[in-house]
């Protein structure tokens, strides 16, 4: 049951880019999509916390003192207000310009970027296996981009997609400092609320967003908020408790596979043979990076793996650290 829940979560996350494309076709603007996604997700999670009080208490490693707890809450809100809002804005801006399948593959360089950043910051070690994985991922991404010669490729879109991966990497490294100190659903709710707040302020300053998008538009917005955000998060949490963090993280590599398959079936997108070979390299490298490395002399596991698990739970959000190890 655990692996099935993790795969269901990956499928829900993987469908988000396709839902986004369909929402655009229904007349939804990127601003409206972002505001409704985070606002609706925050509301659903808030109601869930009210109905299930136990979710407010479980999953944190410790009960921080009041002052430290206040800083943790502010950091969690800031993760959404700054990091996640920026990452999602870049992602859905790129989605306007390029194919969903190609976008998902470029975004999925973030596990590699997290590993590199963690090594440079001294928070993890570069083992021979990880070095091979990083080289494979880099080569795979080169193949993905070199093979993108069709109408689905857009240079600015690719730049925005890579920018989303870079911002997400920073977000994960910061989130790794608080993920152990709040229950996962509480942390996810705070992140969603922070992002909704930033996007609401932006909408107010820029003259608002058009929410008169008709029933089809609202249907796809609900799919993004409920299926690709709330359901994706909760199924990841449930699967994570049954499989453990490494298995759950490896199974999450199913996400871009789902995006590519759905984009081909629903949107008529396709990847060339060169791009498919590159995608295989990227996904295999990500899977290798999830294999637990030997503990350091301090006995602390690598930060990059913890960060990756946080990333998935928060991006849609896989906010998981060891105890609750999934957005």
From TrEMBL:
Superkingdom, taxonomy of origin: Bacteria
Keywords carried by this UniProt record: Cell membrane, Membrane, Transmembrane, Transmembrane helix
SUPFAM superfamilies in the cross-refs: Multidrug resistance efflux transporter EmrE (SSF103481)
Record-annotated membrane-spanning stretches: 30-51, 72-95, 101-122, 131-150, 156-174, 186-205, 217-240
Coiled coil: none
Principal location: membrane
Cross-referenced InterPro entries: Diverse_Substrate_Transporter (IPR051258), EamA_dom (IPR000620), EmrE-like (IPR037185)
One Pfam family per UniProt: EamA
Protein's name according to its UniProt entry: DMT family transporter
Source species: Micromonospora globbae
């Amino acid at each position: 049951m655990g692996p099935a829940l993790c795969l269901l979560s990956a499928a829900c996350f993987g469908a988000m880019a396709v839902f986004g494309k369909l929402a655009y076709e229904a007349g939804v603007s990127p601003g409206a999509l972002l505001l409704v996604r985070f606002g609706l997700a925050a509301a659903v999670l808030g109601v869930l916390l009210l109905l299930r009080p136990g979710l407010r208490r479980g999953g944190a490693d410790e009960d921080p003192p009041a002052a430290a707890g206040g800083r943790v809450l502010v950091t969690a809100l800031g993760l959404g207000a700054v990091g996640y809002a920026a990452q999602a804005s870049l992602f859905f801006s790129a989605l306007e310009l390029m194919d969903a399948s190609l976008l998902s593959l470029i975004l999925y360089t973030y596990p590699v970027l997290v590993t590199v950043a963690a090594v440079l910051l001294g928070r993890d070690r570069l083992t021979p296996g990880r070095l091979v994985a990083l080289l494979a991922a880099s080569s795979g991404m080169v193949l993905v981009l070199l093979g993108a010669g069709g109408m689905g490729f857009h240079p600015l879109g690719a730049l925005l997609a890579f920018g989303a991966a870079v911002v997400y990497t920073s977000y994960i490294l910061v989130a790794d400092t608080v993920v152990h100190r709040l229950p996962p659903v509480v942390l996810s709710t705070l992140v969603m609320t922070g992002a909704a707040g930033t996007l609401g302020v932006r909408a107010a300053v820029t003259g608002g967003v058009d929410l008169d998008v008709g029933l089809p538009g609202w249907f796809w917005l609900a799919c993004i908020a409920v299926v690709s955000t709330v359901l994706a998060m909760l199924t990841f949490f449930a699967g994570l408790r049954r499989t453990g963090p490494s298995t759950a993280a490896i199974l999450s590599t199913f996400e871009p596979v789902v995006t590519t398959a759905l984009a081909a079936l629903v949107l008529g997108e396709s990847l060339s043979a060169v791009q498919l070979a590159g995608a295989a390299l990227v996904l295999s490298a990500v899977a290798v990076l999830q294999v637990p490395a030997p503990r350091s002399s301090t006995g602390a596991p690598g930060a990059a793996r913890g960060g990756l698990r946080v990333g998935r739970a928060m991006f849609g959000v896989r906010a998981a650290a060891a105890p609750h190890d999934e957005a």
